[in-house]
Structure formats: structure tokens, C-alpha cells
Amino acid sequence: MARCPPSRHDVCLDSGGFTELKQYGTWRTGPEEYAALVRRLRAQLGEERVRWAAPQDWMCEPQVIFGANHHLPPHHPQYFRGTAPHHSGRAGRTDREFDLAVRLHQERTIENFLELRRLAPDQPFIPVLQGWAPRHYLRCLDLYGQAGVALEREPLVGLGSVCRRQHTAEIGNLVQALTAAGLRLHGFGVKREGLAQYGRYLASADSLAWSAGARYNPPLAGHLHKSCSSCPEWALRWYADTQAVLRHTSP
């Protein structure tokens, strides 16, 4: 693995769980290896620059759990391996099967968070709430409490599995309820539509929408790379445009 240069700005470390579960249906990296990776990256980037690191959480989108082909914007269908392979692609799945699978993903997420903090108490791992329906997230909140983790006392709590419906009123109401309960939330994959509705209730958020947009558009004038999908200038322009949109649309 190439050495990272010291960062000139604050950074946060995402675990890449969505891609891992999408492609393989499970985590191939153990918590010991992941904790060592986070420690190495912080040492290279600058410990004071790395604000937090996500755990190896388990997303709860139906396609992540049950697999098969799903059409995701902007273009062609994508294949999900599925974390419940005995259900993969089978029609007639019941709500009970889905609820049980979500519960298992929540338990695995919490177990990993606790294990990472045990292995590397000096590293800034944050807890992540996982679920699908609002009742799932509230149950996950209770599960953390049962495990001895008071999320309202944590400096930051990630909110997962909201990326593909992050602009819905259901998610907006959930964010408001969790914030009212004392949680400082980071929204994973929250785009402009979601930020316009409930961004004021989030402590922070991230999005790869800028990179996806660049991937399917020509590079900026004068740029020699084939795509601006990793281009700082494109990212900063997207950020400025997003700020302008939010100033005109936020309540």
C-alpha cells in the first residue's frame, strides 16, 4: 500500500462497507487488520487531521441483504452479491425475513464497533446507526444502549443506509427525532436534496455525488485527465454550487 502524504486539511475515514458488501456479501478484512490500517493512515496523514473513522458497519438496503440485479442511477444495473445468499434473488421474501436480516446487520455493526474500540481505544472510531425503516433505526439505538453505549454522549454518530432515499420526508423526520434525542449525526451519502430538507439537523455529511457527476461528464476546460472524478477543482466547484443551492432552498 502506497504511503499517504501528510494532509493539509481535516479528513474522515470511511470503511468502504457498501462496496465491500455489494461485491462480496461479507467483510473480508478482519477487525485487527482494519484497526491497524486506520492507525497507519492516521500516522501518515497526521493524527490531528483525522477527525474520525467509521467502523466496519453492515448496510441494511434490501439489495445489499438479498442481492441480485438492481437498477441504480445514473445508468446500468448493478449486481449485488447479497449477505443472505440463501435468499438471493428469490421472490416472495417476507417482511419478517427482512426484519431479521436487518437485526443481524445491526448486531454485527455494534459488535464490530465494540471490538474496534477494544482493539484500538486510541483511535477515533464512531458508532453508526443502521436500519431501513425508522423503527429499525430506533431499535438500533436501543441495541447500542443494551450494549452499554450511550449514543447521546458520543461526539458523533453515523447514520447509515440513507443514501438512496436521503431526500425523503421519512428520513427527514428520523433525523429530526434522533437529533431531538441528543445525537450529533453524520449523514453518509446525503446529497443536495437531503441537505436542503434537514441539513440543519446534521452535524456533518458526506457525498460522492460530485465524483459521480464528473465521471459522466467531460473534464473541465484545460484539464488533461480523462475524467474529473478525482479532481479537486471539480469538487470545489460542486461544493460552491451546493452551498448556493442550499442558501436558496433550505427552510
Number of helices: 9
End-to-end separation? 45 Å
**Could you say which structural class the secondary elements and strand pairing correspond to?**
alpha/beta
The average pLDDT is 90
Shape: globular
Could you give the order of the helices and strands? Answer: EHHEHEEHEHEHEHEHH
- How are strands sequenced across the largest beta sheet? 5-6-7-8
Helix fraction by DSSP (H/I, runs of at least 4): 40-55%
Largest sheet: 4 strands, parallel
Task: Give unreliable regions as ranges.
Answer: none
Gyration radius over CA:
19 Å
Strand content: 5-15%
Number of strands: 8
Domain DeoxyPurine in DNA protein A: 8-66, 100-240
Protein name: DeoxyPurine in DNA protein A domain-containing protein
Organism: Streptomyces diastaticus subsp. diastaticus
Pfam families: DpdA (PF23859)
Task: Give short descriptive properties of this protein.
251 residues; single chain; two-stranded parallel ribbon; alpha/beta
List the SSEs and their pairings.
Layout: E1 11-13, H1 17-24, H2 31-45, E2 50-53, H3 62-66, E3 68-71, E4 77-80, H4 95-119, E5 128-129, H5 134-146, E6 157-159, H6 169-180, E7 185-187, H7 192-198, E8 204-205, H8 209-215, H9 232-249
Parallel strand pairs: 1-2, 5-6, 6-7, 7-8
Antiparallel strand pairs: 3-4
Describe this structure in words.
This protein has 251 residues and is an alpha/beta fold. The chain has nine helices and eight strands. The strands form three sheets. Strands 5-6-7-8 form a four-stranded parallel sheet. Strand 3 and strand 4 form a beta hairpin. The longest helix has 25 residues, at 95-119. It starts with 10 loop residues before the first strand and ends with a helix. The model has no long low-confidence stretch (mean pLDDT 90). This is DeoxyPurine in DNA protein A domain-containing protein. It comes from Streptomyces diastaticus subsp. diastaticus. Residues 8-66, 100-240 form the DeoxyPurine in DNA protein A domain.
